[in-house]
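Hey, weird one. I pasted the DUF2855 domain-containing protein sequence into the form twice and got a warning about non-standard characters only the second time. First submission, copied straight from the form history:
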Amino acid sequence: MISRWTVVVDRDDLTKTEVLHDELSPELGDCEVLLKVSHVGLTANNVTYGVIGDLIGYWKFFPVAAEGRGVIPLWGFADVVDSTVDSLPAGTRVYGYLPMSSHLVVRAKLTSSGFVDTADHRAELPAVYNGYLVTSQDAAYDPRQEDIQVLFRPLFMTSFLLADQLADNDFYGARTVVISSASSKTAFGTAQCLRGQGVRLVGLTSPRNVEFTESLGLYDTVLPYDAQVDVEPSVYLDFSGSADVRSTLHDRLGDSLVKDISIGLTQQKPSSDSRSQFFFAPEQLRKRSADWGPEGLAERFGAAWHAFTAQAGGWVGIARHSGPDELAEVWQSVLAGKANPNTADVITF
Ligand SMILES: NC(=O)c1ccc[n+]([C@@H]2O[C@H](COP(=O)([O-])OP(=O)(O)OC[C@H]3O[C@@H](n4cnc5c(N)ncnc54)[C@H](OP(=O)(O)O)[C@@H]3O)[C@@H](O)[C@H]2O)c1
């Protein structure tokens, strides 16, 4: 038997965690692959998976037999330790969506870049989360940049597609883009993609994060949340989910606020507002796959990703942790918003 640990979270109170231990049968069925999780990143994006877990179905990816509790998904690397699929032998390294658990069994269906987990409980869930890349088949993989990849890659695809959607629509007629939670990785990745495109970038952030956000050198102006923005035609990109910030901006800008787009909710208070439109990355992905072809898209994303990763290590230092107890501690810290934006957390399992 294989000893497995899993960190579970109370679905109604994300501050309550527990480390569970159980035994996993080493017997694998047809097409099954046993993965041992290697290391993962943990950011506010993972907290969102818990905050809107019921709405989007994030709790369903890694079901656990513990009433009222669930497993938060993380992005990271894992190694095949046993397999009934010839082309996925022990030692194969993969990147994808992983549980807060030492091991995961997947039912693999091969693709050109790796495999998809076809487990029954994942069949109805968004396809983007079910694919795993085999590192030896991934052109963007660089073994020296695994930490950068686990932290930024899931976020930067959104940054890239969001910036592209704005440019694709000529910024909806605006020449200023106001971005909340400007210190977050997905927000500053978007700012990096927008630089040099003829728009003024205004970052809104908490007072304590102004200095860090300015130090990135990506925004033309950085303001604390309670400061007034200039009245000029603007697009709002909301990563904070703050109803107050939204209302203040609408009151101040009026008709000059030409587009209001919701992407995140770092403040963990889901709310809907008819003035804001939800950003749905798969839609822009589909559009650009058709416009540019899958290869053209991969080439453009690859160029943007390389430009970003060349700088990202200088913006954010890595804090390393290991094991289930430290994983639970990092979860508490990111959930509480205590984490300093100049440091990002990588956990080895
Ligand atoms: N829709 C999509 O496709 C998509 C994809 C990726 C990410 N996102 C969303 O984008 C947001 C940013 O994710 P990330 O992983 O890039 O974040 P991150 O780098 O971990 O962001 C950290 C920042 O978020 C704010 N924050 C964090 N915890 C907080 C708390 N408890 N209370 C208040 N503010 C808090 C602070 O920024 P400030 O002080 O600057 O506010 C903090 O510096 C998340 O809501 C995520 O779900 C959406």
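That's the output from the first submission. The warning seems to come from a hidden character in my clipboard, not from the data itself. Residues 2-141+317-348 form a domain with the Quinone Oxidoreductase; Chain A, domain 1 fold (CATH 3.90.180.10).
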